[in-house]
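Blinded run. Sample ID left blank on purpose so nobody reads anything into the name before looking at the predicted structure. Input follows.
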Amino acid sequence: MNVFDYFFLYSKDLKKDFVLGSVEQISYNQLYEKGLKLAQYLKKEIGENNNIILISQNSVFFLIAYLGIMKSGNVCVPINPVIEQENLDFIIKATECKTFFIPQRISEKYLLPNATIINEIDLNNLVNSLTVEPESHTEEFDANRLAQILFTSGSTGLPKGVMLSHRNLMANADSIVEYLNLTSDDVIEVVLPFYYCYGLSLLHTHLKVGGSVVLNNNFVFLGAVLSDLDKYKCTGFSGVPSHYQILLRKSKSFKGSEFPSLRYFTQAGGKLHNAFIRELIDAFPEKKFFVMYGQTEATARLSYLPPELIEKKLGSIGKGIPNVTLDVFDKNDQPVNDGQIGEIVAKGDNIMLGYLNDPEGNNLTLRNGWLRTGDIAKKDEDGYIYLVAREKEIIKVGGKRISPKEIEEVIVSIPEVVDCTIEGVYDEILSEAIKATIVLTDNTDEVKAKEKILSTCKSKLVLYKIPQIIEFRKKLDVNQSGKKVASVSLSSIKS
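Blinded prediction complete.
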């Protein structure tokens, strides 16, 4: 089955709005019809099995193009709308793309010689002028066909193209729908971009069950996000660690709000420190909080921690999602014993076809039917998995090995701290010194904050784990998916 037909299996005639919001709306039957028209047009004009680039913020334009491309038997390549020209050129060359869906204001930023560009005006004219033709079902669609290529950062610095099939997308959506118990009554506030696998998983699951999405591309305006949750009676909110850190420590009204329709939160995209998890569940004891873990190579999700175990298994990423086998292997590809450290491996229908044009990467990552995630972890006696610091993250101070997460956890327990990043910097005597880069809540005095941070560290950490350098930044700099990025420091205080 084509994933387009899977999404609309029971909803193609629904007049209910799939996209809610003050800016744009579109119903199920409108989205289905426009996606199908575009698919039929693309199949006639360019055929099948071509890679087609889609560069757009979350919008109705994105949805029609995304769904229409995959329905046509072509391959969608969603890309960050603020991508650098150099990286875009690399992706164009790797995918041999000739057709692009890009809104006009975004396409003006890039040099795209010899490209066929379809902007929002072109797309609107296309879907309004065409009529839907009867579909021929003489041949069954192969679900193992390539549906999309998602580009993610590689170890070499060059983007890596993760190839996902129609089966991958359907399998992961089914699993997530099952453990979140999603229904047609669910409405999700979407602050994650759709070029990111976590964001796409929200789109896929709510489309599948007949729910709705509220698109918000401006998380920086917290008031609008919180207003959406109430105005559109959102039942779910999903974010990466920075979203929760900002909501908990920057918003004055988040923790005091009731959000009567909201039934759950989900978090993935990196580890959220235990201090923030405790703060969230204390503020919203009646809401379910799902800690999750995943990778683009696994379509999106690999594990989740049941909300009822959040306190008992604090810090765990849980176990494999339905229909996914998740384990921790040693260097001999054998499951580790309880408490031993190894690499997380996964098996299931959600595991990628492979990396684009990268046989060496495929041989390293896909071995003996298992996805090697590269993430280091251990299991407890009940089989729950806990991430641990990778070797490259360990700081060595005077010969002593230190995990940055331990120090970060102590510092973010301070209410005035929004974020903390611990890293090792060169030191002539100790080889490495500990540096803490910290974002504070608004209007917090940095000198007093430094004193409180040091006194807290001294009370909870041994001497060699206390940061030698404390640097303050005015804001938590994140990319469009909400993940932290490097930023120029605005002030620095040396311990």
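Unblinding after everyone has recorded impressions. Residues 37 and 130 are 6 Å apart (CA to CA).
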